[in-house]
Amino acid sequence: MTDWGLRAKRSGKARALATSALVFLAVAMTSPDMAMAQNYQFSQLKIEGNERIEPATIIKYAGIGRNEALSAGGLNDAYQRLQASGLFESVELVPQGSTLVIRVQEYPTVSIVNFEGNKKLKDDFLAGIVQTQSRRVYSPATVEADAARIVEAYAQGGRMAARVDPKIIRRDGNRVDVAFEIKEGKVTEVERVSFTGNRAYSDRRLRRELSTKQAGLLRAFIQSDTYIAERVELDRQMLTEFYRSRGYVDAQVTGVSSELANARDGVFMTFNIREGQQFRFGNITTISTVPELDAAEFDKLAKIRTGATYSPVAVDYAVTRMEELALRKGADFIRVEPRVTRNDRDQTLDIEFAITKGPRVFVERIDIEGNNTTLDKVIRRQFRAVEGDPFNPREIRASAERIRALGLFSSADVNTRPGSASDQVVVDVNVAEQPTGSLAFGASYGVESGIGFNINYQESNFLGRGQYISLSFGSGTDTKNYGFTFVEPSFLDRNLRAGLKTWYRTSEYSNADYNTKAAGITPSLEFPISDNGRLGLRYTLERDTLTDVDDDSSQLLKDEAMIEDGSLWKSSIGYSYTYDTRTTGLDPRFGWYFEFGQDFYGIGGDYQGIKTTALLRAQRKIMQEEVTLRFDLEGGAIHSFGDYDTRILERFRSSGIMRGFESNGFGPRDMDVANEDALGGLYYAVARAEAEFPLGLPSEYNLAGAVFADVGSLWGLENTDGGRIDDGLNLRAVVGASVLWNSPIGPLRLDFTKALKKEDYDREQNFDLTVSTRF
Fold this sequence. Notes:
The strands form 6 sheets. The protein has a 16-stranded antiparallel barrel. Strands 1-3-2 form a 3-stranded mixed β-sheet. A 3-stranded mixed β-sheet has the order 4-6-5. It contains 14 helices and 31 strands. Helix content is 19%, strand content 42%.
């Protein structure tokens, strides 16, 4: 094995100069008169040394014709053209009287291309990125470029220490083998991420916004600590958006310094930040230059409070609401322009929303490319505008965001270009599809529930229609679950989310002397009714069975098991209203969620009643957004009609209501029997408060702590067996602390609790460990 190819390349320029000198020397030696002449003529062209390349091809590259007047400079140009063709290892032009001899040595043919030393990148992948191929002419320049391409491929995977040394092996018949000797090196990790210029937020807080993480003790598991240059620009954008969404309108990431360690196995990154001052909203006004549109009517749609922290999202929402109102009024080509007046003295921004007539431009057509599997209509229905509608740039940008939010594409670019006329535009949509199906095997563990396993298959782009299907099976210590879910996100090509859910569950409780079975089906329909609000409608048909009640259980349970042999059909219609600002709210530091739902039983079936549940959840980030406060208020009530009393299968049970108790650990309980089974209740109410905070460890460890307190109760029965069962509203109070770890195998939570107020018959659980994973 030799470095012949590399040596040939390095000596290329010297050989060119020597050959040019040889040309002129040969001319001078052959004919002194010719050396002094201005023009030369060759009546014959003789080609020597060629094996594969036809003489006519060589003459064509040389660009010399017989009996053509030729200067000494022209002769040198012919040599340069032959050399630049990349076909010849060496070229000589030797004048011999009226004959010009073109003597060439062809580059050999590549016989085999090998990759040696590569483990992380396979041969097939490397063969696809190099241009050196078998049965093609060998080129030193191409081989050098291929070595650089391989190095770049490793760098994109975080191995900046990779080295590639191309080797050439001479074979008979003017053939060579090309071998790329690869030293992959170690992954180049991000050793440290630091910031300069940040005053409002700490380094630790800013690191949480980056996709790039520091390497730490768990570097073998944390993949985001690998240095990837392409990720730096994304991190810059994320930091800028983080600041500007919090009122820092002048915030900039002025530069990112990435220093490579001497061993090329580590990078030290520094983000240079210019924060500027935080601004708040000043005066909010609306004007209209369109006579038929009243500014006062639009002004109330701004919904921006003077004094609130400035947010560009709030301005965008206001503009969107105003333009939608103009469309509903039948006014086309309306533009709402937010005009900002900056007041540096009091650090406020006055916003004037100007309603004006925009240019009369129409959407000529929407062209979609890149969707090999996904149907065009899945993408097209994300546009509120169709061909022939007035063109609205803001709506096109919003459509692009909706396409990206589908989760079906790794990238989605939406651009516009001039159409066939001055008042026409064409919207180009270019998408790159990504895998949308998965088969997951999972495991979970709970101190009480034990080890559980599950299998789940899901596809979020079924048959390219954007539909979601899921098949699941789960098995735990006490339960088995089977389920099927189907969702059509645009039912009847409208903003209607149609779903179908079926399930079958069996339970054999270790802490209760009865078993249950449940099977059912629920078709549903959900649609938006406001910016953050959605309404869902559903019908449920299910059959529940209570079995294997022990003889020494409560008489209440034994009576319930006798009703229709423990099996009842239940048919209900229901609705749920949700309002969520946690991800779409104007202030990223605060959000709240509200849910209210009711199910009405008795549309057929064996049970008649109403089940009502409500949940209010608020979240607030404080102390540079490093501490998250959460507060929940939740409750429910069941009311039965007629002479029918609820069974334990209809009543609320304590599982999931409060921490610090076992499943079926509190609530009404029959203490006069040996089993002391929990009986559930008709009502429950609970208040939960939690504060989550960092533990002072590097953010890449994904460790956090929490303290919490729960206060609530579960109460109420129609039948208390003559007053022997205590179903009163007895408050319980629990405090606790948690360790939260988003571990490489899944989210893990350790809870340590202490009940401050409880009943003597309640069953505490002072420690709980839960973890779930998919693999």
